[in-house]
Structure formats: C-alpha cells, structure tokens
Amino acid sequence: MELFQAKDHYILQHGDRALWCSRKNGAFEARPATDLLLAWNPICLGLVEGVIGKVQLHADLPWWLLLIRQKAVIGKLPGEHEIHKITKIAVIPLCDAEPQDLELELCKKHHFGIDKPEKIACSPDDSKFLMKTFTQIKSNVSAPNKKKVKESKEKEKLERRLLEELFKMFMDSESFYYSFTYDLTNSVQRQSAGDNKNIPLWKRMLGEERRRGGAQE
User: Alpha-carbon Rg of the chain, whole angstroms?
Assistant: First the structure.
C-alpha cells in the first residue's frame, strides 16, 4: 500500500482504490485511485501494510494517523485466512507540519534506483552558525514569550511521552492481530451462522457498528 503526502491530505493507495485522510480534521474518504491526479503535488513517502486508524491522546495535541509499518504472518485459519501480527507502526500528526522520517520501505515504483534516503548534514561551520543564531534568539526572548516557550516545551515533552507509550503498546505487547479476510472480533459459531459470507469484510464490519450503535440508542 503506497502512502502519499499532499498539501491537504495523506493518501493511501492500493490497486484501483484509495483512502484519503484530511490533514486538517482527520476525516477519511474512500476515492478511486485515479483521483490522485487531483491532489496537490503528491509525494510518495513509501509503503505501509495497512491503516489502524486515528487517535488523539490529549486535548492539547493533534490527531495522529496510525499506520502498520511491518507485520508478521503468525498462522492460518481454516479457509486459508491469514492472521497477521502488528510488529511495527508509523505515526503521522494530522496537521500542516512535515512528517519526520517514518523509516518506511521505499516504493520501487516511485523510488526507482534509490537504495536508502540520504540526509543532508550541515558542515561544522554551518552548525556553529546555527547554534550561535539560536543562542541569540533565546537571549532576546521577552518574559511573556519565555512563558510560551516553557508551555511549548512542556507540551512537546507530553507528546513525546505519550508517543513512546503508544509505540510500546503496539510493538512490545505483541497483542494486536488482524486479518484481511476473516473477522477476528466474532466467534466462529456466529460467523458460520451468518448469511453474509459473500459481503466484503469491511462492509460486514460497518453493518456491525451500525447495529451496535442502534442498540445503544
């Protein structure tokens, strides 16, 4: 599955279908793959295995898009249904900020001839200049702005800690499994008794969610 970054969206494309995720409000929209031509300057960031969803761990922090970066096949159920375990994830903030290095597998279609993305390093003189400039900026910060800087640092610290816990939850617990063709949330008996076997799995799950929502009301 290819991951594209556009001005207003992140776009996940597989075959003739694509899932668009807004960088403004996190809204998802299923669209034809050909709509990629309508996106503003799409850039392929690499390959992912699937989408987990989006999450906001704190009211002061942005929504994050959770993606499956690596998976492992742990077995098969009767009917040749493969069961996958999530081994690595990628997290992208849904905002205007540029994503950090996601360490994704490169897409051979869009990264032809590239073995590994290269990072541009500053020369020693450039580093000294940047550090000197940063020191000057810090010394000229007024008292009210210092308060904002402190709040910003506390926010970054909170975001870093929550992200670390999120990564641990998915990658250290070894507790997250999924299947593209089998509903792991229902028992074998319940699935065998159903008459919707020919309906795609995602449509069945959407129907389940609607029924549960109606029951709660």
Answer: 22
